[in-house]
């Protein structure tokens, strides 16, 4: 599985408006809806499910990254949105630092393996300092897509 | 002398959703209590069990066997704790 297999090109948000964890999650789920990956009537329900998951423990994993996620029947395949927050968002991360990169995942409830492989893929790339640095420096959706492609091809 | 002893055990993922975010978080929290090293291996992939990011790279589905290895003082304690997490399915509901 590659990043470009599950990141939705139309759901890349190169600059999140200033806000908090909830506004960041709302903006990213809205981008998935606008891209046609989830139905409008499911949008609020997905936001609520992701926020509920965050209550169990923050998905801020350190290195300025968070991976909010949920399993939801509105999709039949793993999908992801990516957003950058230049000013940082307080995600109540384990290391107490703000979050600058957000990967938001929605996966079908009956495909736990795909969800694990998506997390594996994202985590593997996030261990690469070049990937994190170049991602944070990206200004446009096109820049980010190009970076994902390079990461998929091990060109970083 | 106990520092030199390596404690090893095979653990099996028994929960339906596999080693997803929350189980990895619980393993990391347990491992971080231990002053020595704690490692989980899946074949040739090795993860520092104190690192959530590394644990997530194991992508271990239900039924996967992993090698757990700890060194340092009272390494048996952390091995017991991590084994208990695996054997009780991480105390988490399947939807999380």
Quick recap:
The complex is a heterodimer of chains A (about 160) and B (about 100). Chain A is an alpha/beta fold and about 160 residues long. Chain A has helices at about 5, 20-35, 45-55, 110-125, 130-135, 140-150, and strands at about 5-15, 60, 65, 70, 80-90, 100-105.
What does this structure look like?
The complex is a heterodimer of chains A (156) and B (96). With 156 residues, chain A is α/β, with parallel strands linked by helices. Chain A has helices spanning 3-6, 21-34, 43-56, 112-126, 129-137, 141-152, and strands at 7-13, 60-62, 65-66, 69-71, 79-89, 99-107. Chain A has a single domain (3-152), classed as Mannitol-specific EII, Chain A (3-Layer(aba) Sandwich). In chain A, strands 1, 2, 3, 4, 5 and 6 form a six-stranded mixed β-sheet that branches. The longest helix of chain A is centred in the C-terminal third of the chain and has 15 residues, at 112-126. The radius of gyration of chain A is 14 Å and the shape is globular. Chain A starts with a helix and ends with a helix. Chain B has a single domain, classed as HPr-like (Histidine-containing Protein, Chain: A), CATH 3.30.1340. Chain B is built from three helices and four strands, in the order E-H-E-E-H-E-H. A four-stranded antiparallel β-sheet of chain B has the order 1-4-2-3. The N and C termini of chain B lie far apart (41 Å). The A-B interface holds A 53, 56-57, 59, 61-63, 67, 69, 71, 94, 109, 112-113, 115-117, 119-120, 122-124, 126-127 and B 16-22, 25, 52-54, 56-62, 92, 95-96.
């Amino acid at each position: 599985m590659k990043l470009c297999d599950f990141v939705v090109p139309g759901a890349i948000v190169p600059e999140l408006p200033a806000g908090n964890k909830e506004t960041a999650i709302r903006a990213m789920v809205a981008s998935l809806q606008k891209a046609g990956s989830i139905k409008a009537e499911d949008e609020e329900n997905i936001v609520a499910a992701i926020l509920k998951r965050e209550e169990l423990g923050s998905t801020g994993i350190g290195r300025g990254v968070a991976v909010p996620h949920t399993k939801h029947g509105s999709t039949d395949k793993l999908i992801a949105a990516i957003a950058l927050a230049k000013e940082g968002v307080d995600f109540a991360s384990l290391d107490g630092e703000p979050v600058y990169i957000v990967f938001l995942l929605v996966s079908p409830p009956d495909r736990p393996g795909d969800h694990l492989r998506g997390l594996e893929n994202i985590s593997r790339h996030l261990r690469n300092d070049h990937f994190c640095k170049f991602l944070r420096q990206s200004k446009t959706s096109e820049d980010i897509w190009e970076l994902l492609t390079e990461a998929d091809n091990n060109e970083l | 002398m106990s520092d030199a002893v390596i404690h090893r055990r095979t653990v099996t993922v028994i929960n339906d959703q596999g080693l997803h975010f929350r189980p990895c978080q619980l393993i990391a929290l347990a491992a971080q209590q231990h002053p020595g090293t704690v490692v989980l291996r899946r074949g040739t992939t090795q993860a520092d069990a104190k690192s959530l990011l590394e644990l997530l790279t194991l992508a271990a589905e239900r039924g996967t066997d992993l090698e757990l290895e700890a060194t340092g003082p009272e390494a048996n304690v952390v091995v017991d704790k991590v084994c208990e997490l695996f054997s009780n399915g991480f105390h988490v509901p399947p939807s999380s």
